[in-house]
Design goal:
The protein has 311 residues and is mainly beta. It has two domains: 98 residues; 141 residues, no CATH class. The protein is built from three helices and 15 strands. The termini are far apart.
């Protein structure tokens, strides 16, 4: 009897031990999900950082009250620029000038060299590269490379004239054929148009037109028209002439065309856009400045003339 009790006790101990054995987990075939990343909070205000839109850059603007009046033209090989039309003793004005602006806003670095006496006996009076050595004036050197010869340049100090304010120019010189645009241009003076040209596109948004209106009796008229958005900003050139040999320029025959004009530059100013153009005639070229002001283009006193009549 004791043996039977002893066997039963051993059997019960064996059963208790089996129930206490740890069961190993069976590996699962389902992959563990990846947790979603949490935005990194800003250290200062403990807020998630949000990507900011890029800030639109504001175009610089020059101060028109600080515009200088120094012009010149380039010589043979395009390595020098001569400032003419100014008397001696202005070295203090010339020394700070370090940049020259030419056709379509080309900017070149320059340095003042000296006053040039010229040669009165050999000087033929033409403001041309072949006559530069014979003309009195202030001589500048082109510091990098060379420029195209016989081009007009406007000389500046880039501390007062921020060249970053210059506007991109795309030369067109195309006849206007769009009927709606022609109708809008005609409405400016309620006068028929002989011909109209697109001279240039400025900053891919604005356009400059030359409009030759029909002559009425002895009244001649052409206009330079800047289109900005839906606005037309105008500079008129009326003349009253019975004879048409020389209406606006010597021997122009009362005609005007896109060939008479070329762009020097366009620049953003504190007042509005400023346009600089070369107006070519039979005897020479005049450089003019037109400033957007009170919804018109006002011609400034800043101007320059070169006598280039063929010898």
């Amino acid at each position: 009897m004791r043996k039977i009790c002893f066997v039963i006790i051993l059997f019960l101990i064996f059963l208790v031990g089996c129930t206490n054995e740890k069961v190993k987990p069976i590996p699962s075939s389902t992959p563990t999900p990846t947790p979603t990343p949490i935005p990194v909070p800003d250290k200062e205000n403990n807020q998630p950082q949000v990507e900011q839109d890029p800030v639109e850059q504001v175009k610089p603007a020059i101060d028109t009250s600080k515009l200088g009046k120094v012009f010149g033209f380039s010589g043979v090989k395009g390595q020098q620029i001569l400032v003419t039309g100014l008397g001696m003793g202005q070295e203090d004005v010339m020394l700070p000038l370090n940049k020259a602006i030419g056709a379509n806003g080309e900017v070149v670095p320059i340095k003042y060299l000296e006053w040039q006496e010229g040669n009165e006996e050999l000087n033929n009076g033409r403001d041309l590269s072949i006559n530069m050595a014979n003309m009195p004036g202030y001589l500048f050197t082109v510091e990098e490379g060379s420029v195209q010869e016989d081009q007009t340049y406007y000389l500046i100090n880039d501390a007062q004239f921020d060249t970053g304010a210059l506007l991109a120019i795309q030369v067109k010189n195309e006849l206007v054929s769009d009927e709606q645009l022609l109708s809008q241009l005609q409405a400016i003076h309620d006068r028929k148009i002989e011909q109209a040209w697109t001279l240039a596109e400025i900053e891919d948004t604005d356009e400059l037109y030359l409009v030759h209106f029909e002559t009425v009796g002895e009244e001649h008229l052409f206009s330079l028209v800047l289109k900005r958005g839906d606005k037309f900003i105008v500079k008129d050139y009326p003349e009253t002439q019975k004879e048409t040999t020389s209406v606006w320029r010597v021997d122009d025959g009362g005609e005007i065309s896109a060939d008479n004009f070329s762009m020097m530059f366009a620049v953003n100013t504190s007042d509005g856009i400023l346009l600089s153009l070369n107006w070519w005639g039979f005897e020479g070229v005049n450089s003019i400045f037109l400033l957007e002001q009170d919804q018109i283009l006002k011609e400034l006193e800043t101007r320059y003339g070169r006598y280039t009549f063929p010898i």
